Predict the 3D structure of the following.
Amino acid sequence: MAAVEHTTSAGITPAEVVTPSSAGEVAELLRGSTGTVVPVGAGTKTGWAAPPTSCELLLRTTALDRVVEHVPGDLVVVAEAGVPLATLRAQLAEHHQMLALDPPEPGATLGGIVSANASGPRRLRYGTARDLLIGVTVVLADGTTARSGGKVVKNVAGYDLGKLYTGAHGGLGVVVSTTWRLHPLPAAAGAVVVPVGDAAEAGRLATLVARSTLTPTAVELRWDGTAGELVVLFESIEASVDAQSTAAVELLGGGERAAGPPSWFGERPTGGVVLRLAFEPHALPRVLAALPAGSSGTASACTGVAYVSVPADADLAALRAAIAPYDGSAVVIAAPDDRRVSIDHWGPTADSFGLMTRVKDQFDPGRRLSPGRLLGGL
Amino acid sequence: MTDQRVAERQQVSPRTLELADRLRGAIGAAKVLTEPAQLRTYECDGLEAFRVRPGVVVLAEHRDDVVATVRLCAEAGIPFVARGSGTGLSGGAVPVADGVLIVLSRLRGIVDVDPDNARMVVEPGVINLWVTREAAPHGQAYAPDPSSQQVCSIGGNVAENSGGAHCLKYGFTVNHVMGAEVVLADGEVVHLGGRAPEHPGFDLLGAFVGSEGTLGVVTQVTVRLIRVPETVQTMLVGFHSVADAAGTVSDIIAAGILPAAIEMMDALAIEAAEAAVRCDYPKGAAAVLVIELDGPQVEVDEQFEHVERLAQARHAFETRIAADAEDRALMWKGRKSAFAAVGRISPSYYVQDGVIPRTRLPEILAAMGTLADEANLRVANVFHAGDGNLHPLILFDDAVPGAAEAAEELGFAILDLCIEAGGSITGEHGVGLEKKSKMASQFTAEDLDTMQLVRCAFDPAGLANPGKLFPTPRLCGERPGVRTADNAPDPALGEVF
């Protein structure tokens, strides 16, 4: 775990970079130091949280790369935090199983996906990391190693720390190992793609699907600012994919059938400021209408999540206010270099912020982990 | 655990009586009970072995009643316990002696039904089944379905992260609760989560669900509704051996099929169910499986046939397919009434709740049988076989001295088997009062101390349902997170971006 010269694309130049190769080494590093530490995986989502106010030690988890245990009959896998999702998925596919997470960032690690709460289109069916993570091992700021959950899906013994660490961006401790619920790999796939003329139509079609008995794994909208295209993805046994695709064409009043999703499916938009929006699903057309001119992106149309690129000078406060009535939030996941520090990354805090601060202070009393990366400057 | 069976009459202290007076002034005398005869009703929850008389019972009718009660408790430093329908099976809602019990059953408002967003907002005293009943006209349902769903409350479900037969496919309460309004232990009201699928900041809602009342009192819950599937098909399959039934479960999973539910009952559990509800299960079966598939018609048809073939291959001697909803209800009746039904074949029984990796089912069942023989006790097995959640029902005669203790001992020995197999001491009933000592077997001291950091953030004074869940409470320190010059980030290092 020798220190190396390291500068991330976001411009962070930590005093030291370490790549420990075991949970024990992570614990030792934290126990043996007092300065600020920013944990990262493959570094594919460093822009997803605010830049740290300090980073004396950049702790890369990429050498925690062992798949510890896979019991196919139990549909459970234990893997260290630095294992890339793609590597794990390839290994599981040999057993016709999958970890049903599909964030698109290439090379992303399990620990990074958990810490950033990264998800993709199939969250409609399978949920996100918080729904699939059944056990987690973390190292706290003081070097304590702690585990919660276990190796069984059904388990209510103790607090579920996995939920707390999902989306915590390393601010409560370093995720070193993860245990997951798996799903069978679907045998067949098929999609129905329909053009969408305006925001109202996008909303109408999404609602039709949501209120139907169809069971798509994803319903994704590509949105160019005024119009777009909706894809309904079915993944199941062949007979079901076929029957549901036929039913979807009828329900939507048209559409092209395709063997799989189009190339844009699941990709994050780029350019300008990229936002992750979350809102009540039925508010989709109103959220699309609230976007500043020149915006484009994709939306998980039945879920209430969208990734959009807005112009670099867009008024984020105005957008946040406009979608607030739909319980909406807009979080920056990419910004031009010159706005990286100044931009309001997370938006306003809510009445639970005092409690969040107390949680942070319990887990990391010295505020040495990922300082400033989180909501409200935590 | 026998020493915790405190049933004797307790004296209410002057300071609790004083608190009761203040409560009467704050929320109205009719909602504040202190008469011993009135308090008796609330001594225990569904696990009757643990009884503690509270000092005061508050029958809250409004969120503000809860806020006022908690605030006054905090001022007086008197602990409180929230209670829903009281159906819990781990003693999680057992009062604290001389403390306050806040009953939420009267908070029964359906606040908002929002089929377009597939959300419903309800008060914590709303009964689980009512949510699905309200959602039904819109073609929607609330997925978590504990066997007690006709009487258990949503607030209790949130506290316990309740499951049910269908969580194999649909997940638990935590996967279906989107938001909660929570009264913290100092009376502060916070909103965790909401109606959107995610929110900036820590997932405090995820930590709160399943915290067994130790992090605060929930006063409003936003749940996610699912679309009722196009079709549901249920089969009841009889086997000559438990091993064949367990093998069939593994084969179904290995075939890549995810049924909505797979439930197993052994011969003794079947005998009890027959005696109680005459469910007419296959005669002479050593085990039955209730298997339910739901989803699009074509998919269910094909997978249902596949499951039938897998059961045949494991020598199933009788397969019945539910012809209609009534038929299905009858198949489920035997399963859902199994706990109570055991009362028909034994003077007393004790139910445990452990989880094992599904693949270890046959060997653990055999080991349980050996333990039962050694203890000279009968064990009826009813379980969520699809996810390895065992519910051994240990039969004993309370009139026999020492029998209850022996049953309890056997239950705990079974939990040890679960832990050794890499499982858990509870899949859905919670730790509560009953199993807190076992937490130290499943987790290290570091694990438990770390979990309690959450409690220290939510409830530093330890007033919310104290004495549950953790074997040893952690002291929270006086002022966590005080930043000193030594540990504050150095502003000179700010130039990293």
